Amino acid sequence: MNNIKMPEALHEVFGETQSVVEIAGTALFATIGTLLIYFQLYRPIAQDSLWMIILGFILIADVLAGCIANFSRGTNQFYATRPKARLVFIAIHLHLLAIAWLLSAPLEYALMIWAYTIVSALIVNTLKGHPLQLFMAASLMCSGLFLLMLLPLPTWFLVTSVFFMIKVMFSFAVDHYQTEV
């Protein structure tokens, strides 16, 4: 695979090295996914201002990009060797709350989804190196999907919440390539 050395400013996103295929796939998924959510699912509310919509969709693009990038070897290996950075990364993920506020989604449900996702990610993260880490992540992820199905969410926010959960609790909190580190 054709790996390239990443600039230091992008280490938190793509790790120290990353394949061209994974970079392109991440960018393509984030771009197409964001456009699909905006043009097919999102219906602005009258009070939403243009700057809030733009910022909200930049954050949605970040969620979608991270959902894919966190599965890559480069990103996984970068955080596998930096447990403190992994905890900080989980803790700073307030994206879903900001998206809800910026795009007028129900904040009480956003807070519930966010809290479930962060607590689940912390649980999964504590199981690093344990044979049940992947199983526990899948169990919590599937339970979270049931939670989402039971909430009366706008479709665009439901889709965004699914990818937020995958990004933080499953693609990031799991050490997918632990035998390689």
From TrEMBL:
Highest taxon of source: Bacteria
Record has Transmembrane as a keyword: yes
TM region(s), chain numbering: 20-39, 51-72, 84-103, 109-127
Keyword list, A-Z: Membrane, Transmembrane, Transmembrane helix
Protein name: Uncharacterized protein
